[in-house]
Amino acid sequence: MLSYRHAFHAGNHADVLKHAVQAFILESLCAKDKGYSYIDTHSGAGGYTLSHEWTQKKAEYQGGIARLWHEQEEWPQLAGYFAAIKAMNPGDGLEHYPGSPLVAAHFQRQQDRVNLMELHHNEVELLRQNLAGDGVAIHHRDGFEGLVGLLPPTPKRGLVLIDPPYELKEDYQRVATTLQKAYKRWPIGIYSVWYPLLAKAVDRSEGLKAALAGLGFEQVLCAELRVQAQADDFGMHGSGMVVLNPPWKLDEKLAGLLPSLSQTLAQDEQAGFTLEWLK
Ligand SMILES: C[S@@+](CC[C@H](N)C(=O)[O-])C[C@H]1O[C@@H](n2cnc3c(N)ncnc32)[C@H](O)[C@@H]1O
């Protein structure tokens, strides 16, 4: 039974980190004319209306993208990410926010291919409504199994985003076992994995990072953004992105972004960031 709906969290601090990293990687892929493949294993609805009652319930975007949106000139390095948001917001306001599929669609050129997977039947319907274009394939299926089935993709270079809800503890294990299979079929792909930083009693991020570092990929980069102190029992105080086979200079781009981003998104004095090579 799937209960997670991303509309409740659209545009929050975790989305800012995830989609900024996604945009950096897609910009690198777009630097060459040669086409690339983009595969999203957990796509969600594709895009979100911020006035929707689910999104308004906690208005998490207020602590995320809304803190950056009206000072875009202060963030020249995020121009590509902002352009993807702007594509949904023709006026000056911020009424809509793109999910990872619409960020990908913004960068997609004629020669690129986008594969989107989503298991929830309502979310996949929304995804179909939000993304209808040439070169986009939408699959109503399990993203872990689906990813292995799609590899190696054509075009043969590209990016996979793995962004599960982690409501099920098995998701952590499935990320690692799926990437182990993916590495055998497509060792040259760029893989990015989002994960939450949770309260002490329930956090599993260290185990996940250790598993990803041991898979065989030669370079494994990890960026974490913490917006508040870690609680003892429950709550998410930040999130991380592990990038396996990161593109050239991604580490430098993140080193330039994370100090100011963690200050701008801080909710208390424990906010901060970590940027490290796991391998
Ligand atoms: C965190 S949301 C994705 C958000 C999206 N990547 C973005 O950045 O806009 C996770 C999504 O995964 C879906 N999901 C959960 N388990 C899945 C599975 N095994 N395969 C594919 N999708 C799944 C959920 O329905 C939910 O829509």
From TrEMBL:
Provide the leader sequence positions.
none
Q: What is its EC number?
A: 2.1.1.266
Kindly name one Pfam family recorded for this protein: RsmJ
Q: Which reaction does it catalyse?
A: adenosine(2030) in 23S rRNA + S-adenosyl-L-methionine = N(6)-methyladenosine(2030) in 23S rRNA + S-adenosyl-L-homocysteine + H(+)
Give the record's GO CC terms: cytosol
Keywords on record: Methyltransferase, RNA-binding, rRNA processing, S-adenosyl-L-methionine, Transferase
Gene3D superfamilies in alphabetical order: Vaccinia Virus protein VP39
Q: What class of enzyme is it?
A: transferase
GO MF: 23S rRNA (adenine(2030)-N(6))-methyltransferase activity; RNA binding
- Matches recorded under InterPro entries: RlmJ (IPR007473), SAM-dependent_MTases_sf (IPR029063)
Q: Where does S-adenosyl-L-methionine bind?
A: 19, 42, 100, 118, 142-143, 163
Which family does the similarity line name? Answer: Belongs to the RlmJ family.
PANTHER family linked: RIBOSOMAL RNA LARGE SUBUNIT METHYLTRANSFERASE J
HAMAP family with a match to the protein in the record: 23SrRNA_methyltr_J (MF_00934)
Know the name of this protein?
Answer: Ribosomal RNA large subunit methyltransferase J
